[in-house]
């Protein structure tokens, strides 16, 4: 795949880049290793000052970087502005909280005495250069939620961004440089996916994090495993959105529309499978379909656009194939289902019902504005349908029954359970999944500790 900005609203190639050669990659690896030796010794006050300055610059740049993101991957401009603001918020959160999150821990005094020590501490120390392989769908946020905690922990970052968002990738390197970071603290590697393996095998790279597809996750984990390197993987999701009889149906249907089409439906944590109790199925389905029909599809640079184009032609083709497979096998199209006849990689908000286990869309992630509706006879069946997926990233449940809340928390196979609202990442809460959605956690204290050497410091009596 060429490293290029291709406007998905028109299909026009706007700018192309040459991939870095072996000499430049080697220079940057040397720089990362050398910079880490000094940056690791910096204190939290200095690290926080730099990160806050980067957040301030991002706020100043918000209009421009929002337009860049929208141009490169088709995100509606209002959502691009929100993404930039969210990144600045997360940077400030880690600048404020990193020192307490990584403070030395003192085990219980009785355990210290039992070990024969006079004192024991648990200290969090940085690992070194961390390689981040990041996707195009949230081209700023996915990087910042790695970079902010990694830098505050004393690590340095190497970014291999998706090849269709090179301008955003280069912006991020420039942002940290302008904020005052030493050049080797955060570097963007303009490389193709074929170069990732060699970098992972390099001894100077101490760990890796990837957000992306299941095949990409397998490859990174396998390669890193050869070198016994720590990895964090956030992969696909096919999140359930369960609606029970006690739910506020109007609110549940309204939020369901946003939960499905956020980021043009190209979000791992977007709700994709809508599992509705039979007592309220018809009423919910009517409201949900009407909400999907009412969305405005069009130019993502316009403020009133709800759904822009998919990020790539291949992505639209993949989505169409899932829908076509389902309809050939008996699924019903309640709205959408056919690409519009105009330039760009658009696909309309679509709702399918009558889904069976034999259909590909039941097992595979639909990365675009396509929702599947399921009817559940009771809570047990709702849980069975929700868990009948290879993925387990997040989940959404609408109920006012506390006994049902307890059951869903206990039984849903997912990294998060959101009640009476939609899944959304926040810097203070851990984020990640189970099953084929990956392992490890981002954000919160759990995320900043993923790339730390958790060190026991023992003093004899």
Automatic annotation (TrEMBL):
Positions of the Aldehyde dehydrogenase domain = 3-457
Q: Which Gene3D superfamilies match?
A: Aldehyde Dehydrogenase, Chain A, domain 1, Aldehyde Dehydrogenase, Chain A, domain 2
Which Pfam families does the record associate with it?
Aldedh
Keyword Oxidoreductase included in the entry's annotation? yes
Q: Which CDD domains match?
A: ALDH_SSADH1_GabD1
Q: Which UniProt keywords apply?
A: NADP, Oxidoreductase
Superkingdom classification of source:
Bacteria
Record-level Gene Ontology MF annotations:
aldehyde dehydrogenase [NAD(P)+] activity; succinate-semialdehyde dehydrogenase (NAD+) activity
Read off the InterPro entries from this record.
Ald_DH/histidinol_DH, Ald_DH_C, Ald_DH_CS_CYS, Ald_DH_N, Aldehyde_DH_dom, ALDH_GabD1-like, GABD/Sad-like
- What family does the database annotate? Belongs to the aldehyde dehydrogenase family.
Instruction: Give the protein name, as stated in the record.
Output: NADP-dependent succinic semialdehyde dehydrogenase
Q: Which organism is it from?
A: Streptomyces brasiliensis
Q: What lineage is on file?
A: Bacteria, Bacillati, Actinomycetota, Actinomycetes, Kitasatosporales
């Amino acid at each position: 795949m060429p490293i290029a900005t291709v406007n998905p609203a028109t299909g026009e190639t706007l700018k192309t880049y040459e991939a870095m050669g072996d000499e430049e990659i080697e220079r940057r690896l040397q720089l990362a290793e050398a910079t880490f030796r000094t940056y690791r010794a910096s204190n939290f006050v200095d690290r926080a000052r730099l990160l806050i300055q980067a957040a301030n610059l991002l706020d100043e740049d918000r209009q421009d970087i929002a337009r860049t993101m929208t141009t490169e991957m088709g995100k509606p401009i209002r959502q691009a502005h929100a993404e930039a603001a969210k990144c600045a918020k997360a940077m400030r959160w880690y600048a404020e909280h990193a020192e307490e999150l990584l403070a030395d821990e003192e085990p219980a005094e009785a355990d210290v005495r039992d070990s024969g020590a006079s004192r024991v501490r648990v200290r969090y120390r940085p690992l070194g250069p961390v390689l981040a392989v990041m996707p195009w769908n949230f081209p700023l946020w996915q990087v910042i939620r790695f970079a902010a905690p990694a830098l505050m922990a004393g690590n340095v970052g190497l970014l291999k961004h998706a090849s269709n968002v090179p301008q955003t990738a280069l912006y991020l390197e420039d942002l940290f440089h302008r904020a005052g970071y030493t050049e080797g603290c955060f570097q963007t590697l303009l490389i193709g996916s074929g170069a990732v393996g060699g970098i992972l095998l390099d001894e100077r790279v101490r760990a890796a994090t990837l957000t992306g597809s299941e095949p990409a996750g397998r490859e990174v984990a396998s390669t890193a495993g050869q070198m016994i390197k720590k990895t964090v993987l956030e992969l696909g999701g096919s999140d359930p959105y369960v609606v029970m009889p006690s739910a506020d149906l109007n609110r549940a249907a309204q939020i369901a529309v946003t939960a499905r089409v956020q980021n043009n439906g190209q979000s791992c944590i977007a709700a994709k499978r809508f599992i509705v109790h039979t007592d309220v199925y018809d009423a919910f389905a009517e409201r949900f379909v009407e909400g999907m029909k009412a969305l405005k599809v069009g130019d993502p640079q316009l403020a009133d656009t709800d759904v822009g184009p998919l990020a790539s032609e291949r992505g639209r083709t993949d989505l169409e194939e899932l829908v076509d497979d389902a309809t050939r096998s008996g699924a019903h199209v309640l709205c959408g289902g056919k690409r519009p006849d105009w330039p760009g990689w658009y696909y309309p908000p679509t709702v399918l019902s009558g889904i069976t286990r034999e259909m590909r869309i039941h097992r595979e992630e639909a990365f675009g504005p396509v929702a599947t509706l399921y009817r559940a006879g009771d809570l047990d069946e709702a849980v069975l349908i929700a868990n009948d997926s290879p993925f387990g990233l997040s989940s959404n449940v609408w109920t006012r029954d506390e006994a049902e809340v307890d059951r869903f928390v206990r039984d849903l196979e997912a990294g998060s359970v959101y009640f009476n609202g939609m899944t959304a990442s926040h810097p203070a809460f851990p984020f990640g999944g189970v099953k084929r959605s990956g392992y490890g956690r981002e954000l919160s204290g759990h995320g900043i500790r993923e790339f730390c050497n958790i060190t026991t410091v023992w003093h004899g009596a």
